[in-house]
Amino acid sequence: MSSSVNDEQTRDQWGTKLGFILAAMGSAIGLGNIWRYPYVVYENGGGAFLIPYFVALATAGLPILILEYSLGHRYRQGAPATFHFVSRRWEGLGWWMAGISFMIATYYVVILGWCLSFIWYSLGEQWGEDTGAFFIGEYLATSSGAAPEGFWELGGLQWKVLVPTLIAWAMVYFLLQRGVSKGIEMASRILMPALIVMLLVIVLRAVTLDGAANGLDVLFTPDFSALGDAAVWVAAYGQVFFSLSIAFSIMIAYSSYLPSRTDLSNSGLIVGLSNASFEFLAAIGVFAALGFLAGVSGVPVTEVVESGVVLAFVVFPQVISALPALNSVFGVLFFATLFFAGITSMVSILEAVIAAIREKFDLSRRAAVNWVCGMAGVISLLYVTEGGLFYLDTVDHFVNAYGLVVAGLAEVLLVAWIARTLNEQREHIDSMSYVKVGSWWTISLKFITPVLLGFMVVYGLWQEFAEPYEGYPGSGLVIIGAGSVLLTLLLAMALSLNSRAPHDDLVHAGKK
Amino acid sequence: MSTEAIIMFLIGAVLLWGGLALSVVIYVRAARRDDGSATGG
């Protein structure tokens, strides 16, 4: 452990508690809140989905979030050293989480670049009539059209994507270099309020469009029979899990920068409920806009419903072009909203890696940021190629479905069953917090969360073997998808071989 | 919008936004009790 990095006097700290909450909100609120959650609700019982969603939030999302706050705050380390202190042999879990975050950062920044491009393309709706052909064919120049034929055709670098990606990298680098208080916190204090105001403007415009009510009807009309489907419950736990930035090692790093006296449980409640409230609001805006688009196109709402990249970069440009007025303004507003949501998450993803690297190698912030951004920057070039979309989609799927979920499962099993420090964590949280976490927290983490996360992994694997993801070739899924998860695992094992944190330090400090 | 869709929207809105508002009130009160400032580090 580096004394220069971890010393109480010199370790980075948030300037204010509000700054921490805004930064944690910025981390949790990302692209998925806007382009994933609305579709997940629609696909899984509409309004009825809210029931498993709230159950998942209460029994997995909030408990894990508060657990990570406790771990980071108690041990004041990044994830690897934190898990070393929980149980000496488990430092590798922290490195695996950091590795997964690093892998996600390499493609997340490219999507930020797409957002920057589309802010520009919004001016005068430069995407034309066929938004799908513009995004896939002209902008990304995706190789050979459809996979699997074009999967391995790397092609050349796409300058239209490379330039905005480099601009996004420059912004991320600038914020990370400035540090926790002057960089991340300052950006969150400006971007988070702006993000909320921008989303409110978009939602207000969307719900006042003709046909908006039809879209909202499709979103909220409940299908209670869906509650009997295990897949719906898996979707609810998956949404909550992926949305809250848990198991990324981010929240451990962020809470390690907190002052010693901080209300942990209420901070978790505010961040968790802000994230859920934001995506609920985003779903209203998205489906109101889709209702409008369906009306203009003369088709049922169900025919225009999409999620992810296609929703943002193909369907929304259609919505923007169809607006009665101020098309460019709302185009810029929508893609800037995506960018703001994304960059605060991107910075947090890399900060988790930087915190871990600094502690391990005793590096200055500048050196750690240079190394991490430099390596991630080189790898991100893979996604700027003509085949980049396929690689991005594949890595995203595997790293999320198997990396994050398995890491989250291991984290809960470690604390609750292997090291058996759940009660100590609970005492730490309750000693700090106005809202006591109570026995629901212990029961959730000890029984409900491990069972559900375990089921998610098995269910995902079963689906993987039943049908290849997106019809991509098996070689691609194994090499790029499973390979990326395996690479993070091998790196984690290598980095934890020379386990170096002096365990006794914390014993003497009374923290163990 | 159908009545059942409106009911589900209201349930979601009250639980999420109401829960968030309650958490913020607790945060502000606790912060004032601690040091007289909600943003005082």
Automatic annotation (TrEMBL), chain A:
Q: Does the keyword tRNA processing apply?
A: no
Protein name, UniProt field: Sodium-dependent transporter
Q: Name one GO cellular component term.
A: plasma membrane
- BP GO annotations: sodium ion transmembrane transport
The major lineage groups are: Bacteria, Bacillati, Actinomycetota, Actinomycetes, Propionibacteriales
Q: Please give the InterPro entries that the UniProt record associates with this protein.
A: Na/ntran_symport, SNS_sf
Q: Which Pfam families match?
A: SNF
Q: What is its main location?
A: membrane
Q: How does this protein sit in the membrane?
A: Multi-pass membrane protein
Q: Does the keyword DNA-binding apply?
A: no
- Report the locations given in the UniProt record: Membrane
Keywords annotated in UniProt: Membrane, Transmembrane, Transmembrane helix, Transport
Membrane-crossing segments per the record? 20-38, 50-72, 93-121, 157-176, 188-207, 230-257, 269-294, 332-357, 369-392, 398-419, 440-462, 474-495
From TrEMBL, chain B:
Q: Which residues cross the membrane?
A: 6-28
Q: Which Pfam families match?
A: MaAIMP_sms
Keywords associated with the record: Membrane, Transmembrane, Transmembrane helix
The organism's superkingdom is given as Bacteria
Q: Which InterPro entries match?
A: MaAIMP_sms
NCBIfam families linked? MetS_like_NSS
What is this protein's name?
MetS family NSS transporter small subunit
Organism of provenance: uncultured Nocardioidaceae bacterium
